[in-house]
Amino acid sequence: MLNLENEELKNVKGGGLTLWGAVGIVTGVIFVIGVIDGLIKLK
User: Fold this and answer.
1) Rounded to whole angstroms, what are the CA distances from 31 to 17, 25, 28?
2) What is the gyration radius of the CA atoms in the chain, in angstroms?
3) Quick one: which of 3, 4, 17, 42 is 20 to 30 A from 25 by CA?
4) What percentage of the chain reaches a pLDDT higher than 90?
């Protein structure tokens, strides 16, 4: 197994949620709500 040095361990980045990821999720939710609202109003 490969051992990482302290400096390398400090530079490891995880799969955190970025600002653009959060904006994309919020935009998708708003879009889906709009589509559902439009379908309900058609009936």
Assistant:
1) 20, 10, 5
2) 21
3) 42
4) 47
Report the predicted TM-score, pTM, of the whole model to 2 decimal places.
0.59
Dihedral sign, CA of 25, 31, 35, 40?
A: positive
Instruction: Pull the structure tokens for residue 1.
Output: 């197994």
Q: How far apart are the first and last CA of the chain?
A: 62
pLDDT tens, per residue, the chain with 43 residues: 567 677 777 777 777 778 899 999 999 999 999 999 999 987 6
38: Cβ–Cβ under 8 A, 6 or more apart, which residues? none
